From TrEMBL:
It comes from the Bacteria. This is ABC transporter permease. InterPro entries: MetI-like (IPR000515), MetI-like_sf (IPR035906). It is a multi-pass membrane protein. PANTHER family: INNER MEMBRANE ABC TRANSPORTER PERMEASE PROTEIN YDCV. Belongs to the binding-protein-dependent transport system permease family. It comes from Candidatus Pantoea multigeneris. Keywords: Cell inner membrane, Cell membrane, Membrane, Transmembrane, Transmembrane helix, Transport. The keyword Cell inner membrane applies. Pfam families: BPD_transp_1 (PF00528). Its main location: membrane. The chain crosses the membrane at residues 55-81, 88-111, 123-141, 180-202, 223-242.
Length: 250
């Protein structure tokens, strides 16, 4: 049953790969020829490489900003003010309450004039991507933190002479590694595929991978298929690297 499900899920990806590798495929069941031309053309395109770099830079920048901001807040709430967890659970759902198209219009009104002219720059995307990543990061790390006996860990560290900061950094943080990895991978998979904010707030002024894919929609279908497969491989590579680093540290 599991094998059949995996086969069904993999079929569209395999078909896209075959189309990206085919030289011609029109009136036959299988491609009439195979070539790497479309992949070579894609990875030789400086515009594609620039868009890929922009997407990775914005995604990792937003994730780093999210972790640096959310982790201290979560620790303070979990250890000092646990009753505020209910308030945070409501706040993290707010990004899902407003559609990206609606919030983009408001952001365009706010940040298209001085003193904060951020539209067309990566900074506004990092802020928007922070709101997208926040629910995934908060929920994944909160579940991990609840699995720890935080108060006992902190009390034990205090008895050994550690300050609250030292205990949080050297005792609690290493135990949150798996939760952070899950949060980062979930958020990254959503952020690198985000299109509405990138297209409406930045567009071609700071072209991301999804905007590039949209701009190439009227080109060759073989080229577009090679682009989709390359996008999938990039996500797969980042996931593999994250898991490999986590295993090495473990």
């Amino acid at each position: 049953m599991v094998g059949l499900l995996l086969l069904i899920l993999a079929l569209p990806l395999v078909a896209t790969l075959l189309y990206g590798l085919s030289s011609e495929w029109s009136n036959t069941i299988l491609p009439q020829g195979y070539t790497l031309q479309w992949f070579i053309e894609l990875w030789s395109d400086g515009r594609f490489l620039s868009a890929l770099g922009h997407s990775l830079l914005i995604c990792f920048g937003a994730l780093l900003f999210s972790l640096l901001l959310v982790l201290p807040v979560m620790f303070v709430i979990a250890y000092f003010y646990p009753k505020l967890d209910g308030v945070m659970n409501v706040l993290i759902l707010m990004p899902f309450a407003v559609p990206p198209v609606v919030s983009s219009v408001g952001l365009l009104q706010l940040y298209s004039s001085s003193p904060l002219m951020l539209t067309g720059t990566p900074w506004i995307l990092i802020g928007c991507y922070f709101t997208i990543a926040l629910p995934f990061i908060y929920r994944a790390i909160a579940n991990n933190m609840q699995a720890l006996n935080l108060k006992e860990l902190m009390d034990a560290a205090h008895l050994l002479g550690a300050s609250s900061f030292q205990a949080a950094l050297c005792v609690v943080l290493p135990n949150l590694r798996k939760g952070m990895l899950i949060a980062v991978l979930l958020s990254f998979s959503f952020l690198i595929g985000e299109f509405v904010f990138a297209n409406m707030l930045v567009g071609n002024r700071y072209e991301t991978l999804q905007v590039y894919l949209y701009n190439m929609r009227n080109g060759s279908g073989h080229f577009t298929s090679a682009l989709v497969i390359s996008y999938f491989l990039v996500v797969l590579l980042v996931t593999w690297l994250a898991n490999a680093l986590n295993r090495e540290r473990g």
